[in-house]
Request: fold
Amino acid sequence: MDPTVRCSTCNREWQLTYELEELHAGNRALEQFALDHHRHTGHYPDDVSPWTADCQACPAEELYLEQRPAKRFGRTHARHTDHEVVVMGPDDQRVVIQGFEATRTEP
Reply:
């Protein structure tokens, strides 16, 4: 049986068959469903909270369900644009990435 996702706002439950069989999302099936659900409804399913990477200088904003890709987007965007990017976690954890930090090489 495929994994199931519930949304109390919609009062519905979905199996992730489509994400697994049609989209071939594999272990990212929940993430794919949650991000698509947010795009179409404006809210996330139960127990899902995103990490937001938000550029402070342009309209670039990306949502992720894990910290690592959100920070990767922030570093890459800051490196290429020299813009400040704020990465905010679901627990209000906040990381500010400056353009000069993103271009710095580490030993």
Q: What stands out?
A: Residues 16 and 22 are 10 Å apart (CA to CA). The chain is about 35% helix and 25% strand. The mean pLDDT is 90.
